[in-house]
Automatic annotation (TrEMBL):
Origin superkingdom: Bacteria
GO molecular function: carbonate dehydratase activity; zinc ion binding
Family assignment from sequence similarity: Belongs to the beta-class carbonic anhydrase family.
Record-linked Gene3D superfamilies: Carbonic anhydrase
Main EC class the enzyme belongs to: lyase
Keywords: Metal-binding, Zinc
Binding-site residues, Zn(2+): 38, 40, 96, 99
Protein name: carbonic anhydrase
Length: 184
């Protein structure tokens, strides 16, 4: 059975048995916070549990490495939407140890792309168009620095309202949080 089919079969029962009733809430966050964190599998349940966050409590934006790589990209837009339209009034950036984006080499990812059929010409075309693929795919060296960088990007964005922006690092095995930037 395909993974999708398995999920859809489960979903049918989920709805029929009204399991959604445990999760009923509104689109406005009870804790009035928007969290930017990594897409890491270990954080799917661990991060909300470690922060005592339940369905309806916060907005969560996820991206590889919890990085804000472009001031006018969709990550920054999501944060602004949460702050201006959805009643969040604090921002929390949560990076984590042992992140896939930590020490990630763009070169090895580009090699993988080539092995899977992306041609050299494609990379050349992108390069001629002014797109620095290598820079775009690059990760970070130290998670604390990367979290501080994301906090700064958010904090200094020209469209940001006056709200606290915090930066934390989580241990993906124990859930322990360390503060990198306290925004108050
Ligand atoms: Zn990660």
């Amino acid at each position: 059975m395909s993974l999708l089919k398995e999920m859809l079969d489960y979903n049918k029962l989920f709805v029929e048995e009204e399991k959604y009733r445990d999760y009923e809430t509104t689109k406005y966050p009870n804790k009035r916070m928007v969290i930017l964190t990594c897409m890491d599998t270990r954080l799917v349940e661990l991060l909300p549990k470690a922060l005592n966050v339940k369905n309806g409590d916060v907005k969560i934006v996820k991206t590889a490495g919890a990085l804000v790589s472009h001031p006018f990209g969709s990550i920054m837009r999501s944060i602004l939407v949460a702050l201006y339209q959805l009643k969040a009034d604090e921002v929390l950036v949560v990076g984590h140890h042992d992140c896939g984006m930590s020490g990630m080499s763009a070169t090895s990812m580009m090699e993988n792309m080539k092995e899977r059929g992306i041609s050299n010409e494609t990379f050349d075309t992108l390069s001629y168009s002014g797109i620095d693929v290598e820079k775009w795919l690059s990760g970070f060296n130290k998670v604390e620095d990367s979290v501080a960088h994301s906090v700064n990007m958010i904090k200094n964005h020209p469209l940001m309202p006056e709200v606290p922006v915090h930066g934390l690092v989580i241990d993906p095995s124990t859930g322990k949080l360390d503060v990198v930037v306290e925004g108050y």
